[in-house]
Amino acid sequence: MKQVRNFFLVLLVTLPPLLGTAQMSLNQHERLTIQAVRITETPKVDGVLNDPAWRDEVSSQRTYFVQNSPDNGEPSAFESEVYVAYTDRAIYIAAQLYDDNPDSILTELGLRDDGNRNADMFGVGFDPYHKRQNAFVFWLTAAGVQGDSYSTTNNMDDNWNAVWKSGVKINEEGWAIEMEIPYSQLRFPKQEIQTWGINFYRSIRRYQEESFWNFVDANVDGLVNQYGDVAGIENIEPPLRLSITPYVSAYMNQQGQSGMQPSINGGMDLKYGINESFTLDMSLIPDFGQVQSDNIVLNLSAFEVRLDENRPFFTEGTELFNRTNLFYSRRVGSTTQRLGEVYDDEEIISRPSQAPLLNATKVSGRTRGGLGVGVFNAVTNRTYLAVGKENHTTSEEGDYKDVRQVLADPITNFNTLVFDQNLKNNSNISLTNTNVWREGRGRDANATRVDFTFNDKNNTWYTRGFGAYSYILDYDSDSGKMVPDLGYAYNLNFGKQSGTFQFSVNHTRETDNYNVNDMGFLFAPNENSYNVWAMVQKSEPFSIFNNANINANVNYTRTHLPDEFDNFNVNWNFNMGFKNFWYLWLGSGVNPVTNVDHFEARTAGYVFRKPGSFRQNFWLSTDSRKAFRIGMGGGVWTRPEWKSLDNWFEFNPRFRFSDKFTLEHSFEFQRRRNEYGFATKRFDDNGNLSEIIIGDREVRNLTNTFAGSYTFNPFAGITLRVRHYWSRVAYDRFWQVSEDGYLFDTDYTVRDAEGVPRHDENFNFFSLDLVYSWQFAPGSFLSVVWKNNINTSGRDTQVSYRENWETMLTSDNMLNSFSLRMIYFLDYQDAKSFFKR
Asked: Which of 77, 195, 724, 760, CA to CA, is 20 to 30 A from 788?
């Protein structure tokens, strides 16, 4: 504790001069302006800059971009020349990116939006409303790979997709690009003279250099607020934005040893520009059968596992909805199985894996005054359990009689409404409301949250926070009525977000009945926490480093009700980027006192006391420019009083055979010895709780993931992802826990009367995703997918890797799916131009 105190004293002593340094950095670069020119003849978009537009009509800006990394604020290694032109239909960007050694330009291929490749890159961002907070970003690699994203004050939404044309060509002076971006893919105000924010980005991969036309200071928070301007755009009209993307798909699915089951699906996505600012997105009869398999794990914790969203409709254009934890789109289509009554003499024969999505709609946009509005709505259909009584008149296992359908999920409507108002100084205030309605006696839920961020004019100091409430209306079987439950939460955060020294002070409170999980995601409520975080960073090269930072945080948590101590911990981290482009992270943490876990016992009124613990871990990665790159990490965690010891190690080699072919392997191993955790509850003959059982267990997790890609060209390629997750849990002994959290002996044994382990677990999940994707026209794709999933569970934990693998592969719990899907993009403006010709 003395070392932590001294660390914060050093930071406070150095604060005044560092603030002055940050202020100088903000003011030393003026905002740039580039002139756009209306052209009469549209250029051929092929990366060859010999069109009359670039040769005769448009004047370029030739300059050295300014580095963001590795040498923040210094000129780029080479000059860049950029052009901006426009017509009544589209805006055109061209650039000659000079390079003294064109043969050294890196050109690894990838599919669309794959920016994590060993290739030089050029990008442009547009801020049409000139609010310095949001931007449409388009980029190209030197291999011709195309990508786009939507930049906000909070993050970069890489799931946003637009349809546009581009061309790339390596030439004697370096490489050149051309972009044609239709106005139908942008949103801008309806006014005679347009002034947009703009910035250009360049990456010289062999130098690991990233630079911008208008300097983006690594010591200043934010990206769009550091854009320059484009002038000269006049007399353009926001077009009618209307496009449809119909699809047809065919499946052959096999479950276990059953035969192949064919199916054919069809549907359509629709985009309609309601006005210059807002867009309607609809998905009619959606099909998500080809999305990547989830990373399923064995969950022993008191909290659910948060899974990634892979369904395109729920990932694209949802930045307004994703700003808070009130919107977790995986809730839409999930099954709760809360309704219906299953009698004591019945068994559940089958359960629904998901609730069918009938339709989904979202409307989003931002006005010229900076007001962002988002409306999301989705409806899912009923699901049913199949239940029956065991048929004792036959000898066949799994034979049932009196089989009936029991309602698991009613028709459910999910709705989210967001208002987000941009304010000056890159500030904002927003309101989010979510509502879940279920038919009949189904549980209804409503949550509302107001967020705010206020920055000073230099974007250095900030105050942010939120206030929220949740309202649940659920059926009470005892009273036969719908009973309401109201909870609330708030957060206040103050700090410094730019400069060499940064810090924050944070306070959060959540009541015990604050619940947003019908539409959102919250691990656990009932929190009253305090957090202090501080960081010292250097963004410019020094000694053997390109950059480095040291940060530390102190966390103190109590419960809201009752007001009791919960947790105290201190963590510190060192991040170091070296001049040879290796990277090292070191992290440590300590829980110096006994913490009180209010959730592990899984019963209200019970706690579980955990003695102090210590953690040390690291991550090291080699130069990603090399054909062979390795990432590796590991750590150790210990709780000495219980002799608990965790070790984990991860090894991540990647080999790039050529610009077309790459293979990557991820090996992760974790072993947790003497882990104490919840096992089960025991009840007396009257059904009253008699014991909560805590087990001393050893947990071993092994995950192997292989990922490979072969890219034929920027529009067609094959990707393969194979993942095997194996978890073994073996219990050594059990205790019972008292209400105040202490352990004492129990007669509960590890094995039952027949010698079978009660709670040991041998769990496997295997997934294979093989995908061929071909973009045969702008916005139009053909994909062929083979998916294979296996899920097994048993009690035998004393098996070798080979024995476990062979048993898993012979399981009946296997799903094979072969599918073919084609989508075709149809745009109103293209169709209009075609018929005019």
From this structure: 760
